[in-house]
Amino acid sequence: MKVYFPNRSSSNLNKKMLIQPMFVDQRFKVKKKIKGMGNNYSWTQSSITKAIESDLKKGLSNFLLFIVPSDKQRLPEDFSFHYDVIYNIKQKFKKDITLLIDTCLCSITPDGHCGISHNKKIDLKQTHYALGLAANTFLEAGADIIAPSDMMKNTTRYLRKVFNENGFHQSQIMSYSTKFKSGFYGPFRGAANSTPKGFDRSSYQLPINDRKKAINSSIINAAQGANYLMVKPGMTSIDLIAEIKKETLLPTGVYQVSGEFASLQLLEANKLGKYLDLLNESLNVFSRAKADFIITYGARDIVKYL
User: Between 293 and which of 74, 170, 180, 253 could a Cys-Cys bridge form, CB atoms 3.0 to 4.6 Å apart?
Assistant: First the structure.
């Protein structure tokens, strides 16, 4: 089995560890700039391939795709738009890129929650079924890595079971294994059409002040079959990376989330700092903290300097 993001012995930042998030939105006929996010757009199905081609020429090869459908579904089961987007991208670029697919329900549920809810409570059985259906569809379309970000109990175990039942024995999972409830997700929620309604996400995302629970969450996901682990948001989680790696022996990365990235843009806009210097500094800190991969909206901006 290919290891896309191995455990690193060096703490030097390099382009192979960078992952560029990309949004594809069925609602739009032309690309739309994401507020506060610099050179990041919500792309159309027809324009996403040109965007990836441009990034590929810059030296990027890893992409995390967020697919936003036009229609909401109370019980998500139609992932045909997702399939078409993934299939077309992989048919064009094949092994030239590593395509990770964010696997969650927040862009498709009417209330913007990461699972199917009833009376302000998550129905875990229905949520797992929908996530399994989605992830299996993504693999059939050609996804290289499934990245479940829902933070529901035992999702990794459930997906591994579904993959084995459907013949995807070598499929790879990058779990959002230590993901905190955070105020730093604002720009993303706008782009993903996923602002939660009715109740917040504290029932399934981690409390920021519980270190033991945060580390244990990654340990559990490792035991359930994840290939790669992640901490999120990046800057509020750097103290956890080394210990998670020690406890699980799995490659562990970091997600520099939209609010973190937007703050770098805001500092430059107000002449309080230089964006590229701030980006370089922040990414080198993640690398110094032993991250094996870094998801950052600034990957396309920094790659030519590495």
Answer: 253
